[in-house]
Amino acid sequence: MGYVDSHTHVWFREAITEEMRKRSEIVGYRIPEFSLDYIIKEMDNAQLDYITIIAYPSRELWGIKEDFPLKIIDVCKKYPDRFAVIGGVEVNKLSVQETKIWLEKQYEAGISGFKLHPPHMWIKPNDYREEEKGMKQLEILYEFSQDNKLPVVIHTGTSFFLTARNKYADPIFVDDVAVDFPRLRIIMAHAGRPNWVNTAFQLIRIRKNIYTDLSSIPPKRVLEYLPRLEEINEKALYGSDFGGPGTKGLGDNLREFLNIPLSLLAMENITKNNPRKLIKTLG
């Protein structure tokens, strides 16, 4: 059984629009455009059984709308067992009815889960609550995911992009979601790094339905951020963030991670077992 990378930004050139290319120049980060054959070769060399592609909509940052996950899925159909695709709906831009329509469309296409990016969307994960914004669209996203047994990946920790509002990146707002939707599987991306790692760690410990992926944390610094990672090894997932700013290749990042001094069981859980329990492939 090979490894699983639970968080990448592998975007294929067939799905990239001219608007996305122009916007990437504005934000100062050129979107990598990968070919399917290249990624499959890299995965084979790294002994990766499958990778998860994060393909959430972001109009302000990339000019991406809710059809983007469908485009990524279409490219991946040649190797459905090698890819999982995390989609999403930009609940702050859609009506209640539009939210329902796009959730259904992505679900019918075989989506593996949904992504919420609070710093890019300028909302808190608990903004569905009446004492917050009472955002019905966000509640619908969680209910739909819970009912269909799909995980929701929520970005926690800072984002360096110019349009990001990092006050929304605190993982404490995820606590309400875990309590209000007890059957929802929540994956806190990036473990709150760098500012809120302690908060993220405690929530992972006390809430049965909160997990974390370790993407975008340099492997050599993982235990610096999470010295008690061994204690939550059944609730942590390996991820590289490959395709994102400053990340190494699929194989290079994985090889560095495998050198972290963890028990064999913990390493097996984080890089193989846990991802398979939470994130299904397209096939």
From TrEMBL:
InterPro entries hit by this protein: ACMSD, Amidohydro-rel, Metal_Hydrolase
| CDD domains in the record | metallo-dependent_hydrolases (cd01292)
Q: Which Pfam families match?
A: Amidohydro_2
List UniProt keywords, sorted A-Z: Hydrolase, Lyase
* GO MF, any single term: carboxy-lyase activity
Lyase as a keyword? yes
All copies of domain Amidohydrolase-related, residue ranges: 4-278
User: PANTHER family recorded for this chain?
Assistant: 2-AMINO-3-CARBOXYLMUCONATE-6-SEMIALDEHYDE DECARBOXYLASE, CATALYTIC_ HYDROLASE
- The identity of this protein, by name, is Amidohydrolase
